Amino acid sequence: MTTAPVTPPAPLALIGLGQMGLPMAKRLVSAGFAVRGADPSEAARAAFVAAGGTAFASAAEAATGASAVITMLPNGKIVHDVLLGAGGVAAVLPKGTLVIDMSSSAPTDTTRLAADLEPLGLVLLDAPVSGGVKRAIDGSLAIMVGGPLEGVERARPILAAMGKSIFATGPTGSGHAMKALNNYVSAAGLIAASEALLVGGRFGLAPETIVDVLNASTGRNNSTEVKMKPFVISEAFNSGFSLALMAKDLRIAADLADHLDLPLPQIASVATLWEAAKAGLAPDADHTEIYRHLKALAERAEA
Ligand code: NAD
Fold first, then answer.
1. Which CATH code is given to the segment(s) 178-302?
2. pTM, 2 dp
3. 21 lines ligand 1 (CB under 6 A)
4. How far apart are CA 255 and CA 103, in angstroms?
5. Tens of pLDDT along 26-84?
6. Hey, which CATH number is domain 12-170, 3.40.50.720, 3.20.20.150, 3.90.180.10, 3.40.50.2000?
7. Residues contacting 149, CB < 8 A, separation 6+
8. Contact in structure between 294 and 201 (CB atoms under 8 Å)
9. Which of ligand 1's atoms lies nearest the C-alpha of 21?
């Protein structure tokens, strides 16, 4: 008896092998997908090749022959450029290919991108993630997916290799809106915990005591649980999520509120505070360095 040759499934392309994209691509490789990564950074490409992927400097080259293209890039403008700019990825994709933007992009950019891709027969899903580098490494990200349900179902096995909680959030752009709102709530929690540390510290409370009490009390949040001790109190400031990217997310959230005619005070002030921190700190500052910005503000006011 002869057995029919088995055609290997078409590979996936993942564009952007950064802090998040690289561990996400590695999860896909571990789950058995063939993955063609792309990044201008030679070090990022080498790290992915060492993990069993193939890697290209050109995104269009990586995407050639792929059944789905994932983007994990700094922002939606770069995603648009990679897909539809000169020599862009969209030109090499057959009709029906899934394009999954897992970056934290602005929802208004996403709806425009979907409209630009539609005449080419390309289906866009916005599927941003939450959980940071640690949960990208262990494949337990939260993933919020906007777009047509048929596309969400097609993407589900791919997303399941990277995340544990997958939410279909509604139409195109809804995943990105949800992600910006999540980061707003997360950033507000980090500011509150940082301010508590500064005030409590000045009063004479030990920083570890402050965090332990918050974590056993109603002030507990993700920052008190997973950020204050390892990244802030230790002054390591190396969580793997940059302050500039958080500032971008907060501006997206505040602009969304404006766009919807909701002049809410705190969402706007958190976005402004983060932009001031970005202007005052090093370009590669970690987002947990918001604590250093708040401390400097307090010391400046005293002087
Ligand atoms: P990063 O800066 O570490 O990675 C971005 C990567 O994209 C870099 O390796 C860069 O070389 C590459 N890149 C830039 N332009 C490119 C192009 N034209 N073609 C191909 N590659 C290109 O950023 P990150 O921390 O991995 O974040 C990526 C996205 O995920 C952002 O939208 C961010 O807001 C979001 N995000 C980050 C975290 C986190 O904890 N770091 C968590 C959730 C979501």
1. 1.10.1040.10
2. 0.95
3. yes
4. 18
5. 999 999 999 999 999 999 999 999 999 999 999 999 999 999 999 999 999 999 999 99
6. 3.40.50.720
7. 168
8. no
9. 26
